[in-house]
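Q: I'm teaching a short session on how sequence maps to structure, and I want students to see two examples side by side rather than one. Could you give me a first protein with its sequence written out and its structure tokens following it? Keep the formatting plain so it prints cleanly on a handout.
A: Of course. Example one:
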Amino acid sequence: MVSPLDGAQGAAAERRGGMADLTLRGQYEEALRLVQAGKPHEAAAICRRILQTFPKYIGAYRVLGQAALAIGNDQQAMDLFRRVLSADPENLSAYIGLATIYERQGRSEEARQSLERAFELSPGDQELRHRLRQSYAQRDLPIGRLKMTRAALARTYLRGQLYAKAIQELRELVAADPRRLDLRVALAEALWHDKQYEDAAVVCQGILAELPNCLKANLILGQVWLNTDQDGWARAYLQKAQSLDPDNAVAQAIFGSRSVLPPRTARLPLRAEDVPELALPYLVDDEEGVVESIVIEGQLGQVTEGDEETREPRGDARPSAPSEESPLEEGEPGDASLGRSPQVQELVVQTSADEASLELSLTDLQREYVQEHPDDYLAHLDLARLLCKDGILDQALAEYSFLVQEDYTTLNEVIHDLDLLNRRHPDLPGLGELLRAAREKASLRSPSR
């Protein structure tokens, strides 16, 4: 028997003259479109159907949280956003959703912290910057340009593939506040990209001890341990990762062509009862519970799950086993990741020019950091190199000139960079003189420090 939802989708497809898009991506995007169009009940119905087939799919929980928020069921929305953060501690939408709930409840401090986490993930988001400035205004702080934090800078380094710099910043931040699970996830990813696989595995084990369904931690640990003496556990971690992200989209985003999980196009069954097996070529089957979410009198119903069978993975090694508890962990991981330490630099605001209308580039973000940390000479050097890469040579020379005048520790690297520039741009005004000045300074003995 075809469900009402199936019938409605089939009729809509017939009106369009084609088959309904039953890919997971297509259904997710349709649910997201509906909730953004002010149709949360319809979006929730699609998410319910997705979760009948893929009960751990993170994207469906995210949209359900937004639907609950739109309906006004803040408590369930909070539970759903926390579930999302238990699998993806770096989920921007979940932090923004929690901030909205806290604002409605008058919990300004929690709202501010959630917005700060979101800002660290997307510092160029102009709407987010506006909301965060409003949050600070409520605390009688001046409204202006938001100051970059070390966490935001570390993520900027990670996005810019400056992995050594990202690792350095993230290690210090995590040491100052181990509760920041979002930063521990970023550290694990940076370590993997920097080919520090053993260290990445250690970080992931620590994360999974607290968040067993963390997608990136399962992926990275599985990728590192596959075809080693931990192979059985690696396969279990990879299977859990695919249950959270059936298209393997995050695996492809992190590992690219090196991913052991191939790109997939997951599909929903034509009928709700035709639920397919979780397809992973080299893994054992895994029983998944069915998650249901219903709409009753304008309220999203409680999320429930069926019993799940836990199976031991193959292999003799016995590190912490992947948990098979709820489809996504309950509890308050979002709150845990919002903890702060006095040693972690807090966001402040400064009076400055109006914000740029477009999202900030890596160079813009690095420039902001240098303006706020003028004594960080390595940051000046990084900025000079980014400006060279962008072809903004006059500003790059200004940064190199500052370093020649103010710092000895970076002088050899400055000379190396200027020498390369001189070969490529021998007619660049001021370059020859600056290179001679740098070499002359290097010939002198460095002052004692």
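Q: Perfect. Now a second example for contrast.
A: Example two:
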Amino acid sequence: MARNRVLVVDDESAVRFGIRDFLEQQGFEIDEADSCQDAQHLFRATRPDIVIADYMLPDGTALDLIPRLKEIDSDIPLLVLTAHGSIDLAVRAIKEGAEQFLTKPLELPALRVILERLLQKQRNHHKQLASKTRQIRQAVNPFIGTSAAIRSLADQARKILTTESPVLILGETGTGKGVLARWLHENSNRAEEAFVDLNCAGLSRELLETELFGHEKGAFTSATASKQGLFEVAHRGTIFLDEVGDVDLQIQPKLLKVLEEKRFRRVGDVRDRQVDVRLIAATHQDIGSLVREKKFRDDLYFRISTIPLSFPPLRDRIEDISTLAQYLLDKVASDLGRGEIQLDESCVKGLKAYSWPGNVRELRNVIERAVLLSEGRSIGLRDLNFDGHSNVAAPFLDSSLTLLELEKRHIERVLHEEQGRVERAAKRLGIPRSSLYQKIKKHHIPTSRI
């Protein structure tokens, strides 16, 4: 790793020697200048990590030098040295952009500590910039497509960006609820604060409670230390609770208290803590039905559903599939270093013919699998593998099939995707349940499919 480079600007050679000798022993690389002009030349040529400049120089002062160097590179920190320090001079130097103002004679160990702190601050700043750039580059647009359904969702989402009210995102598994939640956060007034997410599905009451609210040391047998809950971590930011319909009934009153009073209590604690968070929740379940079945509190439901957003399933936005598939293909190909890859016409037809029970998540899996298993610059129907079965879409495009055969295969497929639930299959097919039973009997579809 390259050593940190320091530019020392002082017209006294003895001062420069003392600083150089000490800092070189600490692993720094040193460049020297004895005037403003030389400092500008070296600064431009070497791009140091930090500058140490004496206030009085033969051709000017540090107050003259600082703006010139800042014009070349404003991110490089500068320290100003002087034998005649004053509060007024220090304030002027800081206003011009100096990070520190030190008086001579220097305490060299203290100088080393200051340099290390400034360099660490600079590294952290660069990391933050890189992280923000990466987030912008990797940000996923939840509204890809031109269908009426996705345009309507985009319009609704943009209208609520300035509100602090809870949002409930409804939609099937894999539609993109989590992507929409992050988009809402990153475009809100809380974008610079934390975005914390938790999938509530399958978590026991005890685990969910300690994850959300934290616990105190000794609250239970394995609580050997205090732990912050996610509400504390998300303070001033956004917390996203996916599959909120699975939250245990005993946890729901505590969740309601946080939303209504902005207060909660850690497990094992006796005092309330204040918190300022915005809640976004999501579920694939019909919470209205859960409320009627007494599996979800109605007061909590009314609180979290202040602003409901419904994410349409992929099968209801067929016209978006080609655009969305190409977008995902470009992203996957870029991640895998494959260059530009296109979807051919047969592939697009196959993608549109499929019903996508796994929605966008399944589409991405199909695209990624096709890229990994193909070697060319084009993805065709033969490269598609749906849910582990090759060429699932091919029968839909087989012109040798009769209409009856095509109908039978389509019914079998929908029944399979709905796990034999006739009522849901009939709804997807757009026919009454009684009609579907008649067709099942007519086509001799095995009862094992139902």
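Q: What should students look for in example two?
A: Point them to this: The longest strand covers residues 278-283. Also worth mentioning: The longest helix spans residues 108-138.
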